[in-house]
Specification:
The chain is mainly alpha-helical. 46% of the residues lie in helices and 6% in strands. It has 3 domains: 121 residues, HUPs (Rossmann fold, 3-Layer(aba) Sandwich), CATH 3.40.50; 114 residues, Serine Threonine Protein Phosphatase 5, Tetratricopeptide repeat (Alpha Horseshoe), CATH 1.25.40.80; 175 residues, DNA Cyclobutane Dipyrimidine Photolyase, subunit A, domain 3 (Orthogonal Bundle), CATH 1.10.579.10. The longest helix is centred in the middle third of the chain and has 22 residues.
């Protein structure tokens, strides 16, 4: 039997297209492709429930692309890799870089140990358009404002590399490989069935999603991306996180389209993804510490019942509840809704943004340490590129503006479907006759608001003003 000449360690690059590290391994001959579930070094950043579901199906898809030759393991990667290298006399290991602090520390240790055993390690960039250490201000400091980062940094430096074509892999499977089920990624109670109906997981599904977006969503992206009932977003975020498609492939596929504000705006959204990784690379405690230290003194509330109502979409604020229920039902939330629910949690319920970060970490298919932490700090006002903390999204005004026909709220909060649009986003303002006609009994089949929006907003504003002295 032909023995493998190199190991390619799949991580967040679960694809054959535009996979530079895999291409390096293929040049050596027969490849032993492996995936190692590492719940040891990840500690508190162990993947959440939704991410594990996605990973299961993504690995299944990748395995099929490799003619069922993907070897699966779980444990400490250094031990697994050292064992495989010794067993098969491997002299080269390749991987695409990951940028979470714990992965950087782990990979640095692994590279040191392998090279100490005369094993060549090749790491490549398969996940970001620009490496975080290559986009810096003139004084070599990191950026903290997105527009400067993107326009003065990213767009003024070397353009992203061109994507490479899919490689043909002559693969070898190790006899000790686990069955996919042995990774124990799927929940024992099948809460994921409904969520999976909304997605085509895997490399082929990612490419189809990109093509659908180009054909159907890009033409009015800049304006219509804010309307959650419309289909003008790419929904590529989980595919990008797991590396089922590369940002380079997406970037250049978009740039091939007709020059327009829509094209440029979508590219800038990819820039936000880069900015999040830039921030995490330069501020490793971003998921746990306020980027702006003055908010360490902010008096967060501590009402478990409010947190539970928010998590379950029972706040009595229809636009907020719609967003939280979309998350629970689909493993995803539209970006406009993410702004609304994040603002409500931190500005009205006055609950620490870290509660939201952890809930999203467990529930989102696209849970990404950099994006999740940076986005929550942005919406809370405690992070980079943040306007004053007192920028608070009014969910009633936002509903009328971005869900003008009420389709989004009616879909995810069906108990309100018969309310006329003028009352759909504030049912507490409707008369008893209107509520009765719509079959709504506030406090029974739909909750009263758990806090008063205006009062809670005013309290928050005063607390921020007190912080500023």
């Amino acid at each position: 039997m032909t023995q493998p000449q190199a190991i390619h360690w799949f991580r967040q690059d679960l694809r054959l297209d535009d996979n530079p590290a895999l291409a390096q391994a293929v040049q050596q001959g027969v490849v032993l492709p492996v995936y190692i579930l590492d719940d040891i070094n990840s500690h508190e950043y162990k993947m959440g429930g939704a991410s594990r579901v996605w990973l299961h199906h993504s690995l299944n898809s990748l395995n099929k692309s490799l003619q069922n030759k993907l070897s699966l393991f779980k444990g400490n990667p250094i031990e697994v890799l050292q064992h495989l290298c010794e067993k098969h006399h491997i002299k080269m290991v390749t991987w695409n870089r990951c940028y979470e602090p714990w992965r950087i520390a782990r990979d640095t240790e692994i590279k040191t140990k392998l090279t100490g055993h005369d094993i060549q390690v090749i790491s490549c960039n398969g996940s970001l358009l620009w490496e975080p250490w290559t986009v810096l201000k003139s004084n070599q400091e990191p950026y903290h404002v997105f527009t400067q980062f993107y326009r003065k940094g990213c767009l003024k430096t070397a353009p992203p590399r061109q994507p490479i074509e899919p490689v043909h892999v002559s693969a070898f499977k190790d006899s000790e490989s686990l069955a996919l089920e042995a990774l124990d990624l799927l929940p024992r109670i099948k809460w994921d069935s409904q969520m999976l109906e909304h997605w085509a997981i895997g490399e082929e599904g990612a490419q189809e999603s990109l093509q659908r977006f180009i054909e159907q969503g890009l033409s009015d992206y800049k304006k219509s991306r804010d309307f959650p009932a419309l289909n003008y977003v790419s929904r590529l975020s989980p595919h990008l996180h797991f590396g089922e498609i590369s940002p380079h492939r997406v970037w250049y596929s978009i740039l091939q389209q007709e020059n327009s504000k829509n094209r440029e705006h979508y590219c800038s959204e990819l820039g936000w993804r880069e900015f999040s990784h830039h921030l995490l690379f330069h501020h490793q405690d971003l998921p746990s510490q306020n980027l702006q230290p003055k908010y360490d003194q902010f008096p967060w509330g501590d009402d478990p019942s409010h947190l539970k109502a928010w998590q379950t979409g029972q706040t009595g604020i229809p636009f907020v509840d719609a967003g939280m229920r979309e998350l629970w039902q689909t493993g995803y939330m539209h970006n406009r809704a993410r702004l609304i629910v994040g603002s409500y949690l931190t500005k009205n319920l006055r609950l620490d943004w870290r509660h939201g970060e952890r809930w999203f970490w467990d529930c989102l298919f696209d849970a990404d340490l950099a994006n999740n932490a940076a986005s929550w700090q942005w919406v809370a006002g405690t992070g980079a590129d943040a306007a004053e903390y007192v920028r608070i999204f009014n969910p009633v005004i936002q509903g009328h503006k971005f869900d003008p026909d009420g389709d989004y709220v009616r879909h995810y909060v069906p108990e309100l479907k018969d309310l006329p649009i003028q009352h759909l986003f504030s049912p507490w303002d409707a008369s008893p006759e209107v509520l009765e006609k719509a079959g709504i009994k506030l406090g029974k089949n739909y909750p009263y608001p758990i806090v008063d929006f205006k009062t809670s907003r005013d309290v928050t504003v005063k607390m921020v003003e007190a912080l500023d002295g």
